[in-house]
Amino acid sequence: MTVVAIDRFRFNVKAGAGGNGLARYNGVGGDGGNIYLHARNDVQFKRLLKQLDNADLQRMRAEVGAAATQTKLIGKRGQDTVFKVPTGVEVINADTDTVIVRCNTHDKRYLLAKGGEGGKSTNNFVGQLGEQFNIILSLKLRVDVGLIGFPNAGKSTLLKALTPKKKIHIANYPFTTTKPQVCYLKYDQDVGDDGLFAMSIADLPGLIEGAHLNRGKGHKFLKHVENASIIIFVVDATGFRLSEDSTYRTAAETVGLLNRELELYDSSLLQKPIVLCINKTDLPNSEEKAAAVEEMLREKDWPKLLPEDCRPQNPIVFRSILKTAARDFRLNGLQELLREVYFELNPMASDDYDFFEPRSKKHLT
Ligand SMILES: Nc1nc2c(ncn2[C@@H]2O[C@H](COP(=O)(O)OP(=O)(O)OP(=O)(O)O)[C@@H](O)[C@H]2O)c(=O)[nH]1
Q1: Does 279 sit in the ligand 1 pocket, CB within 6 Å?
Q2: First to last CA, the chain
Q3: Among the atoms of ligand 1, which is closest to the Cα of residue 328?
Q4: Which atom belonging to ligand 1 lies closest to the Cα atom of 150?
Q5: Which segments constitute the OBG-type G domain (predicted)?
Q6: Is 277 in the pocket of ligand 1 (CB under 6 A)?
Q7: Is the CB of 242 under 6 A from ligand 1?
C-alpha cells in the first residue's frame, strides 16, 4: 500500500477561556483547559489523520472553565485537550513562520497553548481568554535506519532484499522530491510485548566525494541521517568509480571516504551505531576483497593504511561488519543485519526471536 505523505497541517489553536468569577461572593472561575501535544513513537501519519478526523480537522480546542456560581463558588477547571503526534513533529507558528517547539522526545507532553485564567479578584472576576494562534504541524518521519553509500553500491537492492516475504505493509513515503525514499517495513513475526517488528529505512541517493561540501546535493541527503537511529554503510566489495575519468576506489578506500564525508558534514553522526555492509560478495574475488577490508578495520589506526585523500580523522568503530550479496537475496549477511537493527531499536528484547522468513529455501545456502 502506498501512502501519500502529507507532511504539513495547518490548525487554528484555541485553549479554553477561564470562567467568570462571582465578585459578590469572592467566587473564582475555573481556569480554561490547556492544549498539549503528546509525542509518541507509535503514532503514524495515518493514525494522526484519524485522530484529527474525529476531532475537527482545522481546529484544536480545549474546554472553557466553568463560571463561579452562588452554589459553586469555585468553578470547575476546563478539561485539557491532548493530541497524539508522531515523535519528531515540529510546531511552527503559521503567522511568524518560526518554530515554537520540536516534539522530539517519545512519550513527552508538550504544552502548546495555555488556557485562560479564571475570574478572580486580580482580574476583576473576568475570565481571561485562552491562548489562540495558527500553527503548522510539520511531520518529519522518524527514520530508524539510514542507508549510505556511493552510487551503485546496492542500497536499493539491499532494501528490496530486506523486504519481508509476507508483506503486511510496505509504504513509500516520498519526501518533497521523489528521492530519498523512506520505506516502512513491517515483519509479521510476533515479538512478544512489542508486537510487530517494524522499521523505517531511508534509502538515500548515492553520495559522491565532496558530499559534505554539498556536491551532488550531498547536504540534502545527509540531513536525513541526522535523525536515524542506525546508519548502514553500503560499499561495493569490488570498489567504486564514479565515471570513466574519476579515480577508482577500492572497497577499503570507499569505507574511508564515507567515514570522511560523514565526519566533515557533522562529526556527531559518528556517535551513532554504524554497521558496515560489504555488498556484492557474489562477484569473482570479492570475498577476498571483503576479507581484506575486514582485516584493515581490525587495526586500531586503520586510516593510516589508506591513501591520504581517503583518510578520516575520526575512524569509525563499526558495530558490525557484514558481507552481503543483496541481488541474490543471499540472506546470511542480511539476517545478521536485521538482527543488528532489531536489537539496536529494541535493546530489551529477548534474543530468541526468529527473524526473517526467507523468500526461498535456496537462498539460505
Ligand atoms: N553482483 C551483484 N550485483 C548487485 C548486488 N547488489 C546490487 N547489485 C547491482 O548493482 C547495481 C546497483 O544497485 P542499486 O541497488 O541500484 O544501487 P544503489 O546503491 O541503490 O545505487 P544509487 O541509487 O545510484 O545510489 C544494480 O545493477 C544491481 O543489480 C549484489 O549483491 N551482487
Answers
A1: yes
A2: 31
A3: 31
A4: 25
A5: 143-338
A6: no
A7: no
56, 128 contact by CB (below 8 A): no
pTM over 0.80, yes/no: no
Domains defined along the chain, listed by start: 8-138 (2.70.210.12), 145-364 (3.40.50.300)
Enter the C-alpha cell of residue 350: 529477548
Residue in 155, 157, 158, 330 to alter for ligand 1 test, most ligand atoms within 8 A of Cβ: 157
Q: Which three cell numbers, joined as nine digits, stand for 137?
A: 504541524
Q: Which three cell numbers stand for residue 76?
A: 470547575
135-185: per-residue pLDDT in tens?
988 765 557 788 888 888 888 888 777 766 544 333 444 333 334 556 656
For atom 22 of ligand 1, the residue with the nearest CA is 151
Written as one letter, the residue type at 285 is N
- Which residues pair with residue 135 across a beta bridge? 11, 93
For residue 137, the number of C-alpha atoms closer than 13 Å in the C-beta half-sphere is 28
Q: Are the CB atoms for 266 and 226 separated by under 8 Å?
A: yes
Q: Grid coordinates standing for 144? A: 530508524
- How far does the centroid of ligand 1 lie from the alpha carbon of residue 353, in Å? 29
Report whether 297 contacts 276 (CB < 8 A).
yes
Task: Tell me whether 0.90 is exceeded by the ipTM.
Answer: yes
pLDDT in tens, 243-260: 778 889 999 999 999 999
Instruction: Quote the crossing angle between the two packed helices 251-265 and 286-298, to the nearest 10°.
Output: 50
